[in-house]
Amino acid sequence: MEYLSGGKIVVVDLGTSEIVEETLEESLVEEKIGGAAITRHLAEAHADGNPIVIGTGLLTGTLYPATCGGIITAKSPVTGKLCHCPVTLKVALEIQFAGFDYIVLKGVSAKPVFLWVHDGIADISDAADVWGKDTWTTTDAWRKNMGDDLIQTMVIGKAGEEKSDCAQVCLNYWASGDRFGFGKLFGMKNLKGLAFRGMGLLEIADAEEFIELSLDMLEDLKESAFVGKQGIGDLCAAIGEQGAKEWLAPIVHRHSACYNTPYPSNTFVYIDEDPQRVTEPEQAEPGFLVTDLYGLLGFYKLNLSAKDACGLMRECARLGLDAATVAEWCAANGKQAAGDIQAALPGISSQATISGRGIFSPWCPRQPIWGAFEAAAQDGEQWWERRMAVAAVFGIHPLMAVMAPELSEADLLETATVGTGITFNQERLNGVIDYLLAD
Amino acid sequence: MAIQIDALKCIGCMACEMACGYHRDDGFALLSACIVTYRTREKKDYFGVLLKREEDLLIARPEGTEIKRIGVEEETDSSQEADASAKPMLLREACDLCKDMDLGPMCVRFCPVDAITNVE
Ligand code: SF4
Ligand code: SF4
């Protein structure tokens, strides 16, 4: 695969430590386009090794707006289904430039390890020093040991090591869309996580045309219904939880975006620092980046203060626990006081409630956010699954997929065609979506 | 013409960095960009944008913009440079305002929130 791609797949056998590099054949891209369709294909091809497959979308890491997305595909150890977890922030960007489009991790390691993926090399590295440590300590240790503060990580905490059903794979220090217990699967494989760093270059088949299309889309998005809104608070309000927005507001510091994504969906709250502060705080860890809408709402509904709720979300992320499932468990078990919840966290092992078919993560709202989508009115569930599938194939941020009808299938197909020199049409995309949505 | 950056408007998306990388390398890459989002103080939520110019470094911090003359204040620059990326800012080419690009300054065009402007 020549364009918009590192051109390589790496297959890592954690049981034997064998690492095999394969070429990403153009024929596979012609057939499956990219992202979740190829991770699913690889998961099926290596099914005997109960694999975790990590990948990027066809447009990930480009200048086409909202192309921050990557994917973790695996059979959930909790639901037993093959499903896909979105990878956001700047993690998928780093995967894209680290040299591999797809990473297959199969088998079980005899001892704790992590995969260090950098500049076209994948190394199985010892994780004994960080086993038992939380996600924050681990990310800090990997950045320090490798001497690069821009390393991006996928990492589990104690919850994954101890195989909790609501263990989550975290991104750097923050919550992810893993509501499938992939953190538990990492733990079952003795895999503490992955660290990514890369300086690659993606070539473009028709660069000028690709840039034109990207700028046209950006101009359209600057007129979109989400403009003027920002952060997790406005997302709460959009799904009918205006009170949560007001409750959170006093501790909001700033909003930030995932790579090249026009809507800043991540909200940093200062828990131990003045939220009005603009200079660099002296404290090393003054707050938390809220990336999970339903985790936040779950704690909000427990009638906690915003500070206590965000403090508990920070603890969940450190332990590598899915905050939304934890909040659900607290509600079901009558835990309402912050201290009681904090004390209970290390022992919680509860299954997330996943509505629908559980192929894509319910981390992303199942309804249009501000944007007008005709198809959503006809069959909301079908519309949502299709938008999730499209986002996961091309590497579009899932939230943008439910926010911006401008990011149409036709535009994505045209941009992918211009970028790769491969002709992708609607029929091909329909086939890929059918494949992804098939049980 | 000069590039101005409003770090408080910035949402840290890195589009400017990739746009500049494209201008330098005709592909998608970050290594040669002369505008970068500094983002290593992730746990503190302290981020902004650095621009390498011919004579100086423009550091757009949330609390305001600072200009550091190259060659005069390097000793205090080291932490900022380390922030930028594996390739220190001082080794990168300076901003040429994308003078060979018909589309104009690429970082300005691709910033989704108009945090970067090109002023006469
Ligand atoms: S004007 Fe052009 S060269 Fe200067 S920082 Fe922006 S993209 Fe880079
Ligand atoms: S493109 Fe704009 S918002 Fe994004 S990092 Fe650059 S200055 Fe900030």
TrEMBL record, chain A:
Q: InterPro entries, per this entry?
A: Ald_Fedxn_OxRdtase_N, Ald_Fedxn_OxRdtase_N_sf, W-dependent_AOR
An example of a GO molecular function for this protein is: oxidoreductase activity, acting on the aldehyde or oxo group of donors, iron-sulfur protein as acceptor
SMART domains associated with the record = AFOR_N
Q: Name one Pfam family in it.
A: AFOR_N
Domain (Aldehyde ferredoxin oxidoreductase N-terminal) ranges? 7-200
Q: Which Gene3D superfamilies match?
A: Aldehyde ferredoxin oxidoreductase, N-terminal domain
Can you name this protein? Aldehyde ferredoxin oxidoreductase N-terminal domain-containing protein
Task: State the organism of origin.
Answer: Desulfatitalea alkaliphila
